[in-house]
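Moderator note: this is an archived Q&A kept for reference. The question asked for a predicted structure of one protein chain; the sequence and the answer are reproduced below.
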Amino acid sequence: MFEIVKAGGIIMIPIILCSVLAIAIIAERFWTLQRKRITPKNLVPQIWHWHKNHQLNSDNVKALRDGSPLGQILAAGLMNRHHSREIMKESIEDTGRHVVVELEKFLNSLGTIAAVTPLLGLLGTVLGMITVFTAISTQGVGNPSVLAGGISQALITTVAGLSVAIPSLMFYRYFRGKVDELVVDMEKEALKMVEIMQGERERDGGA
């Protein structure tokens, strides 16, 4: 493996660094974007229970806010529950924007890696071909080892760049879609809670 990396030349260093960073981002996002961590079940029914039993105090709201991103959004609405529906929705939307930024954390970096690594591979290809043509112009075609080294550099960097870019792009798209799904779920739960607190839903849990 080391010989292959060495044959790829100096361009292999940023490609390897990009691959390590991409793996770290993918692992971190898989852990962070678990549905049970973002949108735990039964939060709205729990709020309804507190509301019916006059237990909707600051301690419960704080625990809700600290428990999950969905809880953070719902808590923002609860802190304005004595105001109008519009004010509750505005506070929820404002907090929701901050939560979405957190959910999308590192995704731009992953997308950048997916876009840059093929270009790094292409740069390595160009450098390898320059090596080949330089060898031809100075030594002719009588030294196959020099020609093989340049061609090897060109091919290895191309493969390495694509090997990093393709999975990075796939996971970037996957996580983008997952964030969109989670945002829709949180919007639905927040709307249920607003309707409960404004007296538009009376059934347990806002179902």
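Archived answer notes: The CA atoms of residues 120 and 206 lie 53 Å apart.
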